[in-house]
Write a structure and sequence with these properties.
His_Pase_superF_clade-1, Fructose-2,6-bisphosphatase, five-stranded mixed beta sheet, Rossmann fold, 6 helices, His_PPase_superfam, phosphatase activity, single chain, alpha/beta
Length: 175
C-alpha cells in the first residue's frame, strides 16, 4: 500500500498552537500549498480530520477526483491545553523547546496526554490501513502526522516533536 500524509496548509490567523479546539479555515496560500503537494496524484481513498483546515481540502479532492472520503474524529490534532490559540512568542521559546525535547514531562497545562493522543491516532490509522486499497491519502495535522511517522519509522513517541512537518507538505510511505 502507498500512504500519503498531507498536512493542512497555512490557516487564517498565522502560526499558532491551534490544537483540537481552534478551527480556522485555510488562507489562499494554504489552499495553494495543498494543491501544489497533491497536483497530479490520485488515491483510492481519502481519510481526513474533521477540522475545517483539513476537511475542506479533502472534500475538494474527493469531489474533484471522485474519490471516496471519510472523516475520522480520531485524526483531530492533539489538545494543547493552555497553549491553544497562542504563538511561540506568547508561550516563550525556552518553554516550547523544553516541550519539543521532552513532551511527556513538559506538556502544557491541560494538554491531552501524549500516550492517549498516540493511541487514538493509531487506532484510526489501523482502521484506515486495514483494507487492501492500493493508495490512501490522510489529510491531517502536524501532530497526527508525527504520530503516524513515529509508528512507521519505529521511533519512540517522545521524539515526535523533533520531526519537522511543513504546512501543506505531502510525504509518501510504502507500507
Amino acid at each position: 500500500m502507498t500512504l500519503d500524509l498531507l498536512r493542512h496548509g497555512e490557516p487564517e490567523g498565522g502560526r499558532l498552537y491551534r490544537g483540537n479546539l481552534l478551527d480556522d479555515p485555510l488562507t489562499k496560500k494554504g489552499w495553494q500549498q495543498m494543491q501544489a503537494s497533491t497536483n497530479g496524484k490520485y488515491w483510492d481513498f481519502i481519510a481526513t480530520s474533521p477540522m475545517i483546515r483539513c476537511q475542506a481540502f479533502a472534500q475538494h479532492l474527493s469531489q474533484t477526483l471522485h474519490i471516496e472520503m471519510q472523516v475520522f474524529e480520531s485524526l483531530k490534532e492533539i489538545g494543547f491545553g493552555d497553549w491553544q490559540g497562542q504563538n511561540v512568542q506568547q508561550i516563550g521559546q525556552k518553554t516550547v523547546n523544553k516541550f519539543k525535547q521532552n513532551p511527556v514531562d513538559n506538556l502544557p497545562l491541560g494538554a491531552e496526554n501524549l500516550h492517549t493522543f498516540q493511541a487514538r491516532v493509531l487506532d484510526a490509522f489501523m482502521q484506515i490501513t486495514q483494507d487492501t486499497m492500493q493508495s490512501v491519502l490522510i489529510v491531517a495535522h502536524a501532530g497526527v502526522i508525527r504520530v503516524i511517522k513515529s509508528h512507521l519509522l519505529h521511533l519512540p513517541i517522545e521524539k515526535m516533536f523533533t520531526m519537522e512537518v511543513i504546512s501543506g507538505s505531502c510525504e509518501q510511505f510504502k507500507i
